[in-house]
Amino acid sequence: MPDTNLTNSAIINAYIGRTPGSAALHREALGMLPSGIAHDSRWMKPHPLYVERGQGPLKWDVDGNRLVDLFGGHGSHLLGHCPPGVTEAVQAQIAKGSQFGAGHALEIEWTRLIQQMVPCAERVRFVASGTEATHMAVRLCRAFTGRKKILRFHRHYHGWHDVMAFGVDGHFDGTATPGVPDATAEGVVLLPPNDIDAVRALFENDPDIAAVILEPIGNTTGAVPIPGSFLHALRALTEAHGVLLIMDEVVTGFRLAPGGAQEARGIKADICTLAKVVAGGMPGGAVAGRKDLLDFLDFEVSAQKGREKIRHPGTYNANPVSATAGIETLKLIRDTDACGRANAAGDTMRKALNAVLAGENLPWAVYGEFSFFHIFTNPDGLDIDPENFDAFALPTAAFKADPRKSLGQKLYLGMVVNGVDAMGHRGGILSATHGSDVIGETAEAFRATIRALKEERELV
């Protein structure tokens, strides 16, 4: 019987032919999960990829296809998949127990490592995810300042709770998304990124701004890059106006450098949010910051000051399995050159992919910093040289979404067909385990995909 899912695209048909096991699982999931997925980023036509295992820079899907992994566990796997010391420690801890309903020594060791590595970490509070971390950070800042509003920047992602549920891929006018009260949205001010004059004007005209939160190298870890000069100017403005600076280091923490973006950019936040790497790829996160801010969680200090304490339970806060993974991961980052190796891999990857673009005479560019890369598909047809591309020289408007939807779909699927799982069509994340061999494989997959896109006249 012919496959009725086949299309007139050789790229899509090759993906369908390569992934029958993923297709079967997705058909089953459609009857149980909304859109058949557990995370919005996994929505993909004709069906998402289902993965069975990972090791170092590689993973294997349920059909046995070997893939260079550039998704990196959403940024969690700085050390690659299943780093031996971390894996062994987690297995040993699971044998002891995964939930005690009590304190344990691991949470103290985990905290001490974070304090050693993160510049602003006078105190630490553990949570179960990055979304919970930004939720708590915002609440602490409003309580400390007595102010009601939070400044955010267009497209910067800080989780999915009500304060962060708009202004990421829509609703840039600040209107609420479904399920979010209008009153909640009114407590958020959205501004375009990199416009320090707009921030200054806001602070001068609205004394009710409690805090500003941002991804410190730009939204989606630099897709719209933030120069260090903007971050330093923002820090100066916040200090001048009594506004607290929240650096969302859920992805950048312990990745750009052992001390995250604060170390890499030379800026100390008032409070930062952590997840992903901090828990070694296991579920977990933390809020780290000034003692006087986190004192709003402290029973004794709150009683002494005669104020109501911020209540914060959480069944999986500092879960011992996540704590174990976090401890072993942070030790390896502290004691080895893991960050440097991942950053060097990112630089090598960007150069390799830009060489492919130049060789194919395609006016795109691959850009980014540290261990990240982003693909600029040049929707406005700018005259650019991929091997001499300066993303900081472009206005933020140049990084708009490419309206050619089928191009993004086929770019991603073509890379998978050629043995690479990137972060959709946007780019990818490197680990300390990505060596020259897999970077070379990725460059060849990129070349083959571009040629297939030309065949399908997607690049005309």
Structure description:
The structure is a single chain. The protein is an alpha/beta fold and 460 residues long. The protein contains 17 helices and 15 strands. The strands form 3 sheets. Strands 4-11-10-9-7-5-6 form a 7-stranded mixed beta sheet, with helices on both faces. A 4-stranded mixed beta sheet has the order 1-2-3-14. Strands 12-13-15 form a 3-stranded antiparallel beta sheet. The two termini are 35 Å apart.
Structure at a glance:
With 460 residues, the protein is of the alpha/beta class.
Q: Which descriptors apply to this entry?
A:
460 residues; alpha/beta; seven-stranded mixed β-sheet; four-stranded mixed β-sheet
What is the overall pLDDT average? Answer: 96
What spatial form do the alpha-carbon principal axes imply?
globular
**How many helix segments?**
17
How widely separated are the two ends?
35 Å
